[in-house]
Specification:
Layout (H helix, E strand, L loop, with lengths): L5 E7 L3 H12 L3 E7 L3 H9 L4 E2 L3 H5 L4 E4 L6 H8 L8 E4 L5 H10 L5 E2 L2 E3 L20 E4 L7 H16 L3 E4 L2 H28 L5 H6 L5 H8 L3 H10 L1 H23 L3 H20 L22
Parallel strand pairs: 1-2, 1-4, 2-3, 4-5, 5-6, 8-9
Antiparallel strand pairs: 7-8
Helix pairs in contact: 4-5, 7-9, 7-11
The structure holds NADP nicotinamide-adenine-dinucleotide phosphate (NAP).
Length: about 325
């Protein structure tokens, strides 16, 4: 086992991401010890039963000795949680987060800063549609990107902190990249936030359609709809906060998306098969590029054929 990057880390928010970091840090030796805190009594109890680390009864106790504190709460809670955390941290320790929106997260974390701790916002581009401590698993970050959006501080102490946090995420298996927060939010608006919005919307439209029986929506879901339902099953609190905090970038993408959708609508209405062929062929090349970049499996139907037997655990 390699030397741990941090002697001790603290995780605030023991859900999917917090639990995955706790498991990975222990399993891959990235931290000597892991303490956790969650606002929910029930989540703290479950985190303890799962053996995720040392579960503290208060935020203060969880973060007091940590070299690095990782906030794994919904984006809307970051401001209050960061303000409550910083006064109890050691001088020279690192405060980071995993929030899916970085502009607002950077503002929230910076506002809580008192000049004693190094603030380095971050976002793992990895996750699932599940939530809660039971959903966490150690290999979640393997091969995934982790984006850091450091501030303007160029002091030796801050640069060393960015270096240590980079090595920590690398030890969890992630590939680390540094980016400007505004750029992160623009990129993620199109690659993650808009796809989730479309999924939430298509599922809602299907269930509202008066001409379709809801039983048929479920029965024939393999015709593309099923893949949207996986994304649309994601945590509503997390996604509400993403859209409220990345408003400008999402609205910009949505505007362009609506225009492009209207163009497809027009092509269908006027029987413009050439236009449809052009657009659909272009989409295929992007799928191929994603597979070539190792961002997904090239296996047919995401490798999940045949369908699980009814009642099986697959
Ligand atoms: P999650 O499974 O719902 O976990 C969040 C945990 O934070 C919950 O246990 C929640 O408790 C707790 N919490 C809420 N407010 C708190 C507070 N004030 N103090 C302490 N704990 C608090 O959510 P998640 O999927 O791990 O997401 C956590 C963060 O990761 C979010 O910022 C999200 O944007 C980011 N992220 C998520 C994904 C993903 O795919 N899920 C991927 C990358 C990044 P309660 O349930 O009792 O409220």
């Amino acid at each position: 086992m390699p030397e741990p990057v941090f002697s001790s880390i603290a995780i605030v928010g023991a859900g999917l991401i917090g639990a995955s970091i706790a498991r990975a840090a222990g399993e891959y030796g990235a931290a000597g010890s892991v303490s956790l805190y969650d606002a929910s009594d029930d989540v703290r109890r479950r985190a303890g039963e799962l053996g995720l680390g040392e579960v503290a009864e208060t935020l203060e106790a969880a973060v007091a000795e940590a070299d690095c504190v990782i906030l794994c709460v919904p984006v809307g809670a970051l401001s209050a949680v960061a303000a409550a955390t910083v006064p109890h941290m050691k001088a020279g320790a690192i405060l980071t987060d995993v929030g899916s929106v970085k502009g607002e997260a950077a503002v929230a974390l910076a506002a809580a800063g008192d000049g004693r701790v190094h603030i380095i916002p971050g976002h793992p581009i990895a996750g699932t549609e599940q939530s809660g401590p039971e959903a966490g698993f150690a290999s979640l970050f393997k091969g995934a990107w982790h984006i850091l959006t450091p501030g303007n501080d160029t002091s030796d102490g801050y640069m060393a902190a960015v270096d240590a946090l980079t090595r920590f995420w690398q030890a969890l298996g992630a590939k680390v990249e540094t980016m400007d927060a505004a750029r992160h939010d623009r990129v993620l608006a199109i690659t993650s936030h808009l796809p989730h919005l479309i999924a939430f919307n298509i599922v809602s439209t299907a269930f509202d359609m008066e001409t379709v029986e809801q039983g048929e929506v479920v029965k024939y879901s393999a015709g593309g709809f099923r893949d949207f339902t996986r994304i649309a099953a994601s945590d509503p609190v997390m996604w509400r906060d993403v859209f409220l905090n990345n408003k400008d970038a999402v609205l910009e993408c949505l505007g362009r998306f609506s225009e492009d959708l209207a163009a497809l609508q027009r092509a269908i209405r006027w029987g413009d098969g050439d236009m449809l062929m052009r657009e659909f062929s272009r989409a295929r090349t992007i799928r191929k590029a994603i597979i070539d970049a190792g961002q997904d499996s090239g296996a047919v139907n995401f490798g999940r054929n045949p369908l699980p037997e009814p009642g099986s655990e697959a």
